[in-house]
Amino acid sequence: MSKHGRVLVAMSGGIDSSLAAVLLHEQGYEVVGMTMKTWDYASSGGTKKETGCCSLDSINDARAIAVSLGFPHYILDIRNEFGDYVIDHFTNEYLEGRTPNPCVLCNTHIKWDALLQRADRLDCQFIATGHYAQIRNENNRYIISKGLDKNKDQSYALWGVSQESLSRTIFPLGKLRKTEIREMATEKGFIELVTKPESYEICFVPDNDYRGFLKRRIPTLEAEVKGGDFILEDGTVVGKHEGYPFYTIGQRKGLGIALGYPIFVTGIDKVHNRVVLGVEKDLLRTAMTVKGLNMSKYPDLAGKPLETVTKIRYNDEGTPAVIEQFGEEIKAFFHEPVKSIAPGQAAVFYEGNDVVGGGWIQTSYNF
After folding, report:
1. What is the Cα 19 distance to its own chain's centre?
2. Residues with catalytic annotation?
């Protein structure tokens, strides 16, 4: 046993998780690598070649790093638990007229739990990932904060990780920039990692066509939902759509309808299979409700309104907002209108660089 302990590192085969393992190895940890097989794209009926974290190439790349440094590497097949939870949720959310965020859900309910279970079996005290985020213990709370590299910061996707899980988690890249990681990989001779393309797509929708995925998963779906009404905010019918699950709040392209001015999806009515259209200003909202909370920095804000910067999607810069907690729900009141708040997406609340907590967007409105 090393003086730092034994750590199970989630290795996708990409540059970030590979360098996380390398850095921990160099720091004196006893490293065990593990690559999780979450999805077999061929089973979805897609035509694009399998790429990304679940491909055979990525698994082999992760193993090659482990072999070169002399630490063990395992493959963990979690396709059943991943599919039952993440993919079913993804599908059901679209059927409810919402816009899901499967990567956050996977972190929260699948990857961390799966890693910790295997860490216990392999006598690992810690788990580690290649996320660009930081973690610290303060006032007996484990707090996630933004990574040093603001362009790569991934703290938004980690709001749901539990305190117990965070107590055993290491983020080796939190204080590093992507440019430094690339330089390190080059210096250490891992050139293939530097030139390897990075994937930003949902792992089980690598062609980025979620509509095609839904149609393949539910063969009868298109026939059941096609032909509903496009309506304006005042209820005027202006055309027929392809089915409410195939649209998202804020969408402008691919509507197949022309009104002589820019139009956007501003609402989805599952019950009546209607898609509401409006102009850009109709997307603006000043408040929202959030449930399914995980408040990591302050476990209970009831009666304590808090000034935050609130993000409503991964690439959102965030907007100043006061949040107030009412039982299991938070209401966020923005200081300026926010565009395209989509139910089903994650809302994450920041105090400075710290993640206060987060939850799932339920509704948006104007106050």
Report:
1. 21
2. 106, 203
